[in-house]
Design goal:
Pathway: Protein modification; protein ubiquitination. Pfam families: Beta_prop_At2g24240, BTB_2. The chain has 446 residues and is mainly beta. The protein has 5 helices and 33 strands. The strands form 9 sheets. Strands 4-33-32-31 form a 4-stranded antiparallel β-sheet, with no helix packed on it. It has a 4-stranded antiparallel β-sheet with strand order 5-6-7-8, with no helix packed on it. Strands 9-10-11-12 form a 4-stranded antiparallel β-sheet, with no helix packed on it. It is elongated, with a radius of gyration of 25 Å.
């Protein structure tokens, strides 16, 4: 790519700035400055004037322009104390440089390099129950019947209010839309799932369950999505609608329903996880929602469970029965589970009904549980395994899943949920209605 070395002068709000076309080209073609160049990355003639004193006037904030111009020159972001960060973000949005600002503020996600960024205190009256990271670095937090939505700058959008229906789970469809699952209220014919606008909180679509050609009210539970635009939810109805429903993300229409078998539990599932490699859905119903634990892989093409495990009738220790969370690890052909002491266990996906191989080296907590415990949650992201316990999140890496780091913030009490997305980790605390934001620092500029 050949770039001209011409100098360019700007008058921004009465202040003069001078730079080169090489610096402006760092802003990319889709930015405000991309329009200054022709297809060969040469400055267009009206801008590349022969008069050396010619200026391009921009009626914007000059302080922010200088910060963003230095960012294009060096790749480094320095925000003076007198410049509000929100103002800089607004100006960066005008110039099409928000991605440059984000890249300079934090780097690609690496759990072993995460640093605490800040805490956000919510305004909901009750404790938070779930947090979900958005694809653009924002998040949403469920508090009873209300969901509060934040963009990547942590500016809050209008909340989503379900009129006293408890929210069970949240899933991001894309950076602009979220799906909520909620409990049915008897006699009201409501509950189920809805697609909502992130920006306005408006209900855009309601997902229905049909049983024997009749629309039924139902309680929707755990949610998951697949790369081929399908939405999955555990469902409980008052007739025989117990199982996993499947909807088309584009049309919103129900396309399948897998009914739970006698003696098994699907409709009460705590967790769903779509496995792209196996084209199956992990369904986990766990203690204490049920007295026993049920974990299975459902293949909707064959209409059957192709892998399953339960602790019913198994010879086990007390700890093993108290499985609190599960996650599939396709690269390892394994299911990872965790008990209330944060002891990790592994099951082989190549055989059904086998025993759990517990890893005693992973045990980080012994003794008395807190008075109001938040049971462990698991997550897997880019080959790193995460497990929350009390007020910390442990990170495990390598083929033997060795503990490599621990994230802890004391404010807010125990961690009741956490989520990873948009190169950030969000940790929701059970007290004080607060969540923490963890980011990976950008790599050093050499």
């Amino acid at each position: 790519m050949k770039i001209a070395k011409d100098r360019v002068r700007f008058n921004v709000g009465g202040r003069i700035f001078e730079t080169t076309s090489t610096t402006l080209a760092n802003a990319s073609r889709n930015s405000f400055f991309g329009a200054f160049f022709d297809d060969n990355w040469a400055l267009k003639q009206p801008i590349n004037d022969l008069n050396p004193n010619s200026e391009f006037y921009i009626d914007r904030n000059p302080d922010c322009f200088g910060i963003l111009l230095d960012l294009l020159r060096t790749g480094d972001l320095h925000i003076p104390p007198h410049v509000p960060e929100r103002l800089l973000h607004r100006e960066a949005s005008f110039y099409g440089l928000l991605d440059h600002v984000r890249s300079a503020k934090w780097g690609p996600f690496d759990a072993n390099r995460l640093r605490y960024s800040r805490s956000v205190t919510g305004r909901a009256p009750g404790d938070g129950t779930a947090i979900r990271a958005g694809p653009d670095g924002g998040c949403c937090v469920a508090h009873g019947s209300m969901v509060r939505v934040y963009d990547w700058m942590m500016e809050e959008h209008p909340p989503i209010n379900l009129d006293y229906q408890r929210v069970n789970d949240i899933a991001w469809v894309d950076s602009e839309n979220v799906i909520l699952s909620a409990c049915e209220r008897l006699g009201r014919g409501d509950g189920g799932m809805g697609l909502f606008s992130k920006s306005t909180g408006e209900l855009r679509y309601k997902f229905q369950v049909c049983h024997e050609n009749r629309v039924k009210s139902y309680t929707a539970g755990a949610l998951s999505t697949s790369s081929d635009y399908r939405i999955f939810s555990s469902c409980k109805g008052r007739s025989n609608e117990y199982g996993i429903g499947v909807w088309d993300q584009i049309t919103g229409k129900q396309i399948d329903f897998f009914y739970e078998s006698p003696g098994w539990s699907l409709g009460d599932a705590d967790k769903l996880q779509w496995l792209n490699g196996r084209n199956c859905l992990l369904v986990a119903t766990l203690f204490p929602r049920k007295d026993n634990c049920y974990i299975s892989l459902v293949d909707f093409r064959e209409k059957r469970m192709v892998w399953f495990w339960s602790d019913i009738g198994a010879s086990m220790t007390v700890d093993e029965k108290r499985v609190r969370d599960a996650i599939a690890m396709e690269d390892c052909n394994a299911i990872c589970v965790v008990n209330e002491y944060e002891e990790l266990g592994f099951m082989d996906l190549r055989m059904s009904g086998g025993s759990v191989r517990w890893s005693s080296r992973s045990r980080l907590m012994k003794g008395k549980m807190p008075d109001e415990p938040c049971y462990p949650k698991l997550a897997l992201h880019e080959g790193q395994l995460f497990s929350s316990m009390d007020d910390s999140i442990s990170v495990f890496c390598g083929p033997d899943w060795v503990l490599t780091s621990r994230l802890r913030q004391s404010y807010g009490g125990s961690i009741c949920d956490f989520s990873i997305g948009g190169d950030r980790l969000f940790a929701l605390h059970s007290e004080e209605n607060v969540f923490d934001i963890w980011e990976t620092p950008p790599p050093p500029i050499l």
